[in-house]
Amino acid sequence: MNIYPYISLIPLIPFIAFVLLGLFGRKYLNTLSGIIGTFALGVSAFLSLATAYQYFFVDGKVDGVFRQMIPLKYTWLQFSSNLSIDMGILLDPLSVMMLVVVTFVSLMVHIFSLGYMKGEERFATYYSFLSLFTFSMLGLVLSSNIFQIYMFWELVGVSSFLLIGFYFEKPSAVAAAKKAFIVTRFADLGFLIGILILSFHAETLDFQTLIARLTDPQSSQLLSITTASFLGVSMLTWGLVLVFAGGAGKSAMFPLHIWLPDAMEGPTPVSALIHAATMVVAGVFLVGRLFPVFVFDGAALIVVTYVGAFSALLAAIIACTQTDIKRVLAYSTMSQIGYMMFAMGVSGKGGEEGLGYMASMFHLFTHAFFKSLLFLGAGAVIHLVHSNDMKDMGGLRKYMPITHITFLIACLAIAGIPPFAGFFSKEEILLAAFHSNKLVFFVALFTSGLTAFYMFRLYFSIFWNKETKPHSDSHGEGPISMRIPLVILGAFALLAGFAPIAKLVTPDGREIETHIDVLFSLTPVLLAITGILLALRLYKKENDIADKIATAFGGFYRSAFKKFYIDELYLFVTHKIVFNLVGKPSAWIDKNIIDGMMNKLAEGTAKVSFEIKGLQSGKVQGYALYFFLGIMGLSALFIYILN
Amino acid sequence: MLNDFFILMKQELVLLAILFILLIIKVGNDWSNERLLNVINALLLINVVAGFIMPAEGALFGDMFKTNGLITLEKNILNVGTLIISLQSYSWLKNHKHLSEFYMLMLSTLLGMFYMLSSGNLLMFYLGLELSSIPLAAMANFDLEKRKSSEAAIKFILSSAFSSGLLLFGVSLLYGTTGTLSFTEITPHLTNAPLQIFAFVLILAGFSFKISVVPFHFWTADVYEGSPVAVTSYLSVISKGAVLFVFVSILYTVFKPLADVWYNMLFLLSVLTIVIGNLFAIRQDNFKRFLAFSSIAQVGFILVGISGSSPLGTASVIYFVLIYIFSNLGAFGVVSIVSALTGKENISDYKAFYKTNPLLSWVLTIALFSLAGVPPTAGFFGKFFLLIAGAEQGNYVLISIAALNMVISFYYYLRIVKSIFMDPNEQPIEKLTVPWMPKLALFLCLAGIVVIGLWSTIYEYIYSLSIGL
Predict the structure, then answer these.
(1) Three-class SS of residue A86?
(2) Omega of the bond prior to A485 within 30 degrees of 0, cis?
(3) Structural domain total, chain B
(4) Under a CB-based contact definition with an 8 Å cutoff, are residues B430 and B342 in contact?
(5) Which among B221, B384, B404 has CB closest to A616?
(6) Contacts of A486 (CB under 8 A, 6+ apart)
(7) A423-432, A602-611, B313-322: segment of lowest average pLDDT
(8) For residues A596 and A594, what is the distance between their CA atoms, to the nearest angstrom?
(9) 3 state DSSP class of A122
(10) What is the C-alpha to C-alpha distance for residues B405 and B279, in angstroms, rounded to an integer?
(11) Which residue in B161, B277, B264 sits closest to B218, CA to CA?
(12) Between chain A and chain B, how many beta carbons pairs sit less than 8 Å apart?
């Protein structure tokens, strides 16, 4: 059976669910709306899997190369005689993989929310917003041209605004939603101008044609965009960098990341959806979509590389100092997306050089599972203790065994311990960086050690450490609808690393031979283990199992850490030096300078607007005077100076 | 010949007929306001429908008056807007003593705009312009017992006279240097002579005054604030739209030889207009004043599109004005209902509006989103197309400033949405019962905001008409 004619149903079904729940949900369907939304998404997820199966394993490949397919396309608007805006669906390995990721994670979140949001007054509204978000995200992924993607891009922004601000009785949630919207909007203006530049010179909005024209050295369009320049930089580079700026906004790359930690005010399942697997990777997706042009230009790709690497490092350092568990996860997301970005950046256009691109996509794929698992796990924890702060947690493993195990799996996966999913994708990224940019490689290596450390700091503080008793009215791990997604995602966090992404998602559509080089893997894995052990030493006090694990690692551990007092030294180094001298200042700069700069900008605008208020005095003679001055000014300028 | 006369001037004649009918009703009868309003709105509906029948192309009176597909379309757009405003003002007009006078004034200005749109000669243009502005001053004074309303009227008539005087000065200078007033004959005589540039600046200032371009915009806020809401929305939507239509066609055809000059002027003026409009809009608490400044910023965006100077520019401007009419009237519609029923006109009064009036809140929100340019509302497409048209000149500084200001405008539109939905309020505006006419108008606006954006035929139709010019 051919699935392609039905692909348009994948985004349409959530859209219908949105309309249905939005219009009738609150009045007529209240408790049913969760089931309806979840069922709709189940159908979408099923169709996506069927599409992926057919594309990857039946007919996507022609002569060993995955081709781009356009199963649906029509001219939506003939904009001018030589420019038309199409609406269509573009299938290639990138979009098919994203289709699976988005629908799958969204389905998990839908199921999880059945229990998590139960009893919420605006339950139906919540599900309608979730459906709207999923619709826009799917539309974004499937877009066949740059205008369409921009439209859905903005829609994603709107729907995430609605979801983050869902608890609108909380002023902090409202502020966070507004901040997320405005900051990403600010970034989108770069995207918008980038689109205008690229499409103006390429004379098309269609991705395939645009890429073909801008990578063909003979084409007149390429000549026009490379010869035009602004401030000494070619328009091609400008266009790409601006498009990337839009992507960096959505993907929370430095310095546009400031909205992400605040956005944690939204309901936790929403964070699992938006801030783990879907919206935040839109930027990576966008770079991937225009990848041939990025590689062709090169200069813009360097920007991508360094912004990615720097964000990865910065976010990891800050994550070590946070005590709000969702904020730790937020920074960790930013750090992991930094990985994906610089992996894109160090990639070449095809063949073995295309490893970085593949690795980036691979990491996007595995990260989606373990990070949404982490968020959902955190949600379950918050559900139990009614607090986001680590200080209120500890020893929870007894009360929530399933959450505990799945959370541990996710932590191991993100730390890059074999054979968990994150190990494989991170290996490929490191390998790609190693072959093309040593500086980035070392940054990545160091960051991966840090990642293991802060993730296990989180893990131990929640599930071990001191004993806390949950409230007597405790509902344990929540209903079964909250446990099932955890288990499923846990299984994927364990197994997703074996997915044959290298064979499927590559820049030129040909498969890449990969093999795990044990010697190469040794360093990052050892670093990760060191990070974990360090976290173990520091945060897993007050219990004896800790000692058992320590003995399992043998005499070396004891002698190294106890006998030579390296433990104390480490404590001193980490707490006094690393935290106080690096971590805290970074967090401070982030909060006060980067964030503050945006605030200052807004304040400045408000101030100027206050200052010029005097002009509007209410006196007509004054108005006439300005009118007259305007005429004189214009005449003088254009008659004497510019003529 | 006589046939031509009736066919080409069909829209003007229908309006005139309606005016006479109103006059006769006023003189001979003592109808209740309710009945009058029903009749008038029915007549306006007929007017809208008649506009679409038998579009014709041609000129009359030695090229004084001309019409074609595009001009007919522009007049139709204005007709639709007028009908919506009339429906929206139902609650306010129902209790007004001078109902038929209000409509007579309004339709006279509309007639003036039609003549202005069809003008083929500077004299005709000036005649239309004056006919479309003097009655407006009387309309601004229509909240008879309010001082602010009279103040608005006086300010409007004084500023308007001032700007007309200078415009007329420009026209006479142009006549002096070219020896003609006919549009088609002026063009070949235009060079970059300083006197002609000066004449052009004066004429440009006249236009800029009407469409509130900075620094010729100062009257806007005071007049908008003081006038009754119906008049404010008429000023900001219909009057502005009509002048914008004429402005585009005159720039693109008559002043084509001066394209280099006016391109740079538009660049300067649009930057000023967007920035100043936005900066003022941030601080306003009076809803009408806020909409006044935000509409100034919108005009700045339109100037960006105009600066593209291509058929794309014409098409995207007309398309945007069409969208702007529906979005702005959506917002004004809610404000006008609230103002008529409760007298409240401040943004802070709208806190927690959603709790008591969910339907009106949604209409207002969607209208504001469309003004801000959030997809999938039509405003998004309109602004995007304006920017594409502007980008044709390759002036990315202008585009960047415009795009940056889109973000600022986002901020203040969102601020209102936030207070409607999220801010707590002890005494929110009570639950309002909206009569069917304003309700219908609001649904028309909503439908417009959704359909005009997504139904591509509308844009394509406008574009196909623009190419011919």
Answers:
(1) strand
(2) no
(3) 1
(4) yes
(5) B221
(6) A112, A373, A376, A377, A380, A402, A403, A406
(7) A602-611
(8) 5
(9) coil
(10) 9
(11) B277
(12) 157
Which pLDDT belongs to residue B107? Answer: 92
What is the interface pTM, i.e. ipTM, of the complex? 0.80
For A240, the enclosing helix (H) or strand (E) is helix A235-250
Q: How far apart are CA A93 and CA B37, in angstroms?
A: 62
User: Which residues in chain B are closer than 8 Å to A602, comparing Cβ atoms?
Assistant: 411
Alpha helices in A416-517 (DSSP H): 421-436, 438-463, 480-495, 501-504
Q: State CA B389 to chain mean position distance.
A: 21
Whole domain around residue B209: which residue ranges? 2-467
Name the amino acid, one letter, at A416. Answer: G
Contact by Cβ (8 Å): A426, A415:
no
Token pair listed for A151: 């439209």
pLDDT at A544 over 50: no
Whether residue A427 is predicted with pLDDT greater than 50 in this model: the reply is yes
Best B267, B396, B416, B425 member to test A by mutation, with max A CBs in 10 Å, is B396
Indicate left, alpha or beta for B420 from its phi (over 0: left) and psi (-120 to 50: alpha). alpha
**d(Cα A370, Cα A426) in Å, to the nearest integer?**
13
CA distance B8 to A208: 48
Asked whether residue A582 carries a pLDDT value surpassing 70, the answer given is no
**Which burial class, exposed, middle or buried, applies to B448 when counting CB atoms under 10 A from its CB (0-12, 13-18, 19+)?**
buried
Q: Which of A85, A174, A643 is closest, CB to CB, to B418?
A: A174
Chain B residues in contact with A642 (beta carbon < 8 A)? 261, 264
